[in-house]
């Protein structure tokens, strides 16, 4: 790659209302390892914001006038693609949708002159297999197993990886498949580092982030659980509580807000970890847990939560979260739980004010050392700046791009969207859930449809096939309800083994699957030997 001057013929970029990302974490301003070595010095000063002036009005009935770059913006460095004539595919986001689309493109057979150059952009240096984040808390997996580096996964492919954050986007394809007559590309993407990327085809797979700003105090005092960084923070907090709280009268109290799959899996995992050293309380606005889950999964989860003495507070919503020290300062003598004045408790504790969502329940206040938030999410694809020109992506109320059945963004034939970034309905008109299973299947179709579009072949409509639902319930416990066998639910150790095998098969590359498979086999062998030794010791000591 090299820095080159920004051509005066390139049209201006339309800024988003807010910056968005394609992965996890907060460290946006660093590039991927080795990135600087592949760049030579560019302009001494890079413009980080774009200023615009209106272009001359077009002819009547022609294309709308194009915004033009200011003099400062003309010095933006441009990402240099290795080949000038081969198609350029830029993928924003390295989750299930983005990474697996890139790998799918790599696996297809291409005419030599049509094989695209693929650039994957993500803010994180690691891909994260999110369904197994819970195993980090239980110690069942290592970080490298479920969060390998992109550089390792893509080492033997033609896919280039760039660790950066997306700042601005300007598609040209709303004027037709071949773009505007002044441009030979499908659009441009500006990264926060100042690097500009011209693309022919764009894939939006930016994922989503936890939505904490809906309840007062949640953003300040609750921890989400949707990224690798989130999981590490929760693990460190639990380790701190385990070190500082010991003894009969020093219980660790954990409050989990939300009893969907994520909340239930968290509650089951943490209650198993704490055992008799703590108590987990799970809050849900519904009158049951996992209301959309298969009956077998829900019953298996209820059985496990009951056996681990998880307290379920169903039919409640959280009105606000306060720090105990703030309650003490306010002098609120009404905030009492189990006959104890919470204001006299440790200042690291928190108070959750619960309000009933159903008749017959009373308001109550809950005390916790750790508050985990699993309710709600918001896509990372923001809206474009309002303007009178047809530049905006069609977004729904949640900020997802509206797509047709081939996963192309409506009105933008050169842009595909999938996963949390896409709004797509099934054959019954129901909005597809934002799950890893959906994104995984969409990536396969997105890769194929990119191949078809580049080779001028018909595109395939996406059809989601529900293969079933799985959930972890602890180190040796899980529940699986496959869709192809009605009424069947695999529970306990059998469900746990089946779930791990299913996820092992879905890991990104053959090399990584092989390494992780060996690691899990070795751990299983060690655990089996330890269990055998323990059993023999008990038998011998009994005799």
TrEMBL record:
It holds the Pfam family Pyr_redox_2. GO terms for cellular component: chloroplast. It catalyses: demethylphylloquinone + NADPH + H(+) = demethylphylloquinol + NADP(+). It is an enzyme of class 1 (oxidoreductase). Keywords: FAD, Flavoprotein, NADP, Oxidoreductase. The keyword Oxidoreductase applies. GO terms for molecular function: NAD(P)H dehydrogenase (quinone) activity. Belongs to the NADH dehydrogenase family. This is demethylphylloquinone reductase. It comes from Gossypium mustelinum.
């Amino acid at each position: 790659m090299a820095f080159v001057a920004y051509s005066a013929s390139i049209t201006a970029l339309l800024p988003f209302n807010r910056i968005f990302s394609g992965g996890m974490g907060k460290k946006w301003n660093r590039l991927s390892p080795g990135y600087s070595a592949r760049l030579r010095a560019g302009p001494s000063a890079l413009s980080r914001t774009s200023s615009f002036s209106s272009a001359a009005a077009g002819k009547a009935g022609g294309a709308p006038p194009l915004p033009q770059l200011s003099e400062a913006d003309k010095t933006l460095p441009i990402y240099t693609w290795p080949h000038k004539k081969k198609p350029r595919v830029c993928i924003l986001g390295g989750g299930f949708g983005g990474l697996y689309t890139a790998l799918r493109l790599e696996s297809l057979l291409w005419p030599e002159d049509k094989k695209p150059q693929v650039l994957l952009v993500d803010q994180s240096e690691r891909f994260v297999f999110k369904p197994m984040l819970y195993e980090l808390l239980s110690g069942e997996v290592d970080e490298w197993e479920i969060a390998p580096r992109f550089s390792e996964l893509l080492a033997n492919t033609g896919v280039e990886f760039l660790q950066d954050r997306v700042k601005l986007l300007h598609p040209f394809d709303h004027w037709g498949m071949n773009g505007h007559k002044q441009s030979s590309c499908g659009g441009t993407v500006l990264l926060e580092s100042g690097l500009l990327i011209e693309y022919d085809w764009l894939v939006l797979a930016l994922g989503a982030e936890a939505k904490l700003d809906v309840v007062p105090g949640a953003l300040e005092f609750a921890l989400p659980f949707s990224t690798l960084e989130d999981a590490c923070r929760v693990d460190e907090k639990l380790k701190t509580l385990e070190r500082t709280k010991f003894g009969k009268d020093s219980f660790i109290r954990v409050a989990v807000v939300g009893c969907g799959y994520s909340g239930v899996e968290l509650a089951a995992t943490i209650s198993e970890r704490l055992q008799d050293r703590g108590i987990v309380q799970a809050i849900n606005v519904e009158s049951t847990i996992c209301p959309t889950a298969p009956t077998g999964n829900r019953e298996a989860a209820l059985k496990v939560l009951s056996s681990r003495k998880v307290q379920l507070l169903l039919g409640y919503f959280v009105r606000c979260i306060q720090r105990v020290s703030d309650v003490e300062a306010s002098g609120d003598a009404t905030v009492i739980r189990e006959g104890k004045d919470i204001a006299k408790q440790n200042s690291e504790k928190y108070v959750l004010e619960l309000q009933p969502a159903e008749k017959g329940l009373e308001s109550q206040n809950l005390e916790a050392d750790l508050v985990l938030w699993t309710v709600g999410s918001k896509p990372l694809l923001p809206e474009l700046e309002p303007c009178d020109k047809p530049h905006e992506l069609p977004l729904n109320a949640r900020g997802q791009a509206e797509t047709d059945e081939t996963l192309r963004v409506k009105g933008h034939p050169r842009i595909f969207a999938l996963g949390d970034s896409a709004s797509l309905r099934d054959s019954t008109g129901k909005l597809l859930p934002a799950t890893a299973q959906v994104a995984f299947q969409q990536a396969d179709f997105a890769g194929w449809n990119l191949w078809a579009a580049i080779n001028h072949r018909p595109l395939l409509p996406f059809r989601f096939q529900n293969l079933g639902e799985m959930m972890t319930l602890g180190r040796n416990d899980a529940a699986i309800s496959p869709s192809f066998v009605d009424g069947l639910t695999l529970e306990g150790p059998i469900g746990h083994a089946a779930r791990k095998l299913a996820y092992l098969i879905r890991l990104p590359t053959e090399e990584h699957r092989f390494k992780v498979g060996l690691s899990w086999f070795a751990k299983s062998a060690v655990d089996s030997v330890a269990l055998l030794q323990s059993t023999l010791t008990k038998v011998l000591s009994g005799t």
